[in-house]
């Protein structure tokens, strides 16, 4: 028996856990919801075929882990292909699991009795890398070391279309500030498309483009809580349905703004660094869930940024 609380997270849009729960039920678990908790019961899970309506990263990872020690074979159709899922499956295999089709939309998992311990070198955070690349596009040349450029192919292509000079090595990316940011339409997509977790940062970049652009989020249709805050800087952004229409302005002006989730926080920091004058971002506890000491990293690049009342 396993008992966990219903998940929290960033306060934007519905992100139901039904893919997770339905998948576990298909594997044979008895799922009940009680007083804000999820209770799962099973003697041993049984292999089955599961087809996701949407290639959910979290659900793919959870079902893969559960199926690794289930009895029989499990097939996951429309599985997520994100690098994080690829590494998870490879790590499970290192622990003794038997997973085939890694990196494709169809995973075949032959259950094993037990898994053994194993070490892992976690892949670099491609979303953090993309955030710093956005700052480099606006503020000056930045080289990111210890990254995997292939994980950022779509993002790098968009930066090049926006007029930035981007070069890569096997484990680094260098971006130079664009003379003029060109407006580039962008639509988020599951991997290998442009990640929804960099949508807010791209909107911040487009606020200073020389023209108009459209940013559409096909993954989370109402993930635009950063737009009213970016408009406080003097940006010109309007949202209709799941698309932000951005008309570039000549300059942003510092303002007091409030972060509402992890990536929105990152976009506000990037905008604040590019703005004229002083910006104060409140509720930064959001950003600490996705970035480690982001202000220190920006300070190492020469930014004038600091934290008030840091947590002990």
From TrEMBL:
Pfam families: EPSP_synthase
Cellular compartment(s): Cytoplasm
GO BP field: cell division; cell wall organization; peptidoglycan biosynthetic process; regulation of cell shape; UDP-N-acetylgalactosamine biosynthetic process
Residues spanning the signal sequence: none
Primary site of residence: cytoplasm
Reaction catalyzed: phosphoenolpyruvate + UDP-N-acetyl-alpha-D-glucosamine = UDP-N-acetyl-3-O-(1-carboxyvinyl)-alpha-D-glucosamine + phosphate
The keyword Cytoplasm appears for this protein: yes
GO molecular function: UDP-N-acetylglucosamine 1-carboxyvinyltransferase activity
InterPro entries: Enolpyruvate_Tfrase_dom, Enolpyruvate_Tfrase_sf, MurA_subfamily, RNA3'P_cycl/enolpyr_Trfase_a/b, UDP_GlcNAc_COvinyl_MurA
EC category name: transferase
UniProt-recorded name of the protein: UDP-N-acetylglucosamine 1-carboxyvinyltransferase
Organism: marine metagenome
